[in-house]
Amino acid sequence: MKEPRTLSCEEALKDMYTFLDHELGEAERRDLEEHLRICRSCFSRVEFEKRLRERLADTGQSEASGDLQNRIRSLIGRF
How many helices and strands (H and E) does the chain possess? Predict the structure, then answer.
């Protein structure tokens, strides 16, 4: 197996969302994972984004109250 390519922080962060979406190729994923293993700053950023996505996904699971739905319909109706 080929040695991971050394990424700069700029390169790692450029691919962060593709990584989080599980859309990187295997070699690119390994390179980014290696960078995250040694760079605490980028690791923290990726972890923050991952947790933010999880929290946003969780909040989208509950239904808005009837009052909120009516207020939204009213606001939309004004446009």
Answer: 5, 0
pTM to 2 decimal places: 0.68
User: In tens digits, what is the pLDDT along the chain, a chain of 79 residues?
Assistant: 667 688 999 999 999 999 999 999 999 999 999 999 999 999 999 999 999 999 988 886 678 889 999 999 999 998 8
- Decide: residue 11, CB within 10 A, 0-12 exposed, 13-18 middle, 19+ buried: middle
Return the CATH number of 9-77, one of 1.10.10, 1.25.40, 1.10.3470, 1.10.260.
1.10.10
